[in-house]
Amino acid sequence: MQKTTIKPDAATTPRRGRPPDPAKHQAIIDATRALFFAGSTKALSIEGIARAAGVSKVTVYAHFGDLQGLVRATVLAQRAEMTAILDQLPTDAPGLRRTLIEFGGVLMEFLSSEGFVTMHRMVASQASQQPWLGPLIYREGPTATRDKLADILAEAVRRGDLRAHDCTLAAEQLLGMWQGLQTTGLFSGGCPRADAATLARRIEQGVEVLLRAYAPEPAD
């Protein structure tokens, strides 16, 4: 099946030299995110998004080019909010544990939220109609988040705070320990959302396992 792309016509191209309105730009992203988290397929319709944002379809096209561009911008905005903590907190030897635990808390709060679960179910239901959607979200969301986490671990290796290892694999393993079976259970409706204490324990123990597994070799 060919990749679906919605392209604006000439009338939707913004006038040269006219900068996009930041308020409208943000309103469109916010509306798209709200529709996704509500599980609405209107999140996959330029017309539906424009109506929710209170702008015209021409404005949406002018800001994002097409539906894929808009969805990508929305995923990037969500990812930036979630990974900002990795740039704001210290990642040196004393601060690495704290930063990983706090990031895990932010991430797991999102991954276990009703909005995320609802969105995931909607995206899965659209896999055959919108074959570009899942790969885009996976690439710009989970994969990029894993790579950001791997960069933090690689920097710790360069400082000598962790011994050399496959940082991408280690980041993926840490994410897996944090999520456990909960993600599958939530998507299928097979288990309730874990309480805060359970999530905190899972996050802290996952970080402890990783830091012990890749602790520097003792000096001779």
TrEMBL record:
Region ranges (Disordered): 1-23
Chain residues forming the annotated DNA-binding region: 45-64
Gene3D superfamilies reported in the protein's UniProt record: Homeodomain-like, Tetracycline Repressor, domain 2
Pfam families linked: TetR_C_7, TetR_N
Boundaries of every HTH tetR-type domain copy: 22-82
Keywords of this entry: DNA-binding
GO MF annotations in UniProt: DNA-binding transcription factor activity; transcription cis-regulatory region binding
Protein name (Swiss-Prot/TrEMBL): TetR family transcriptional regulator
Source organism of the structure: Marichromatium purpuratum 984
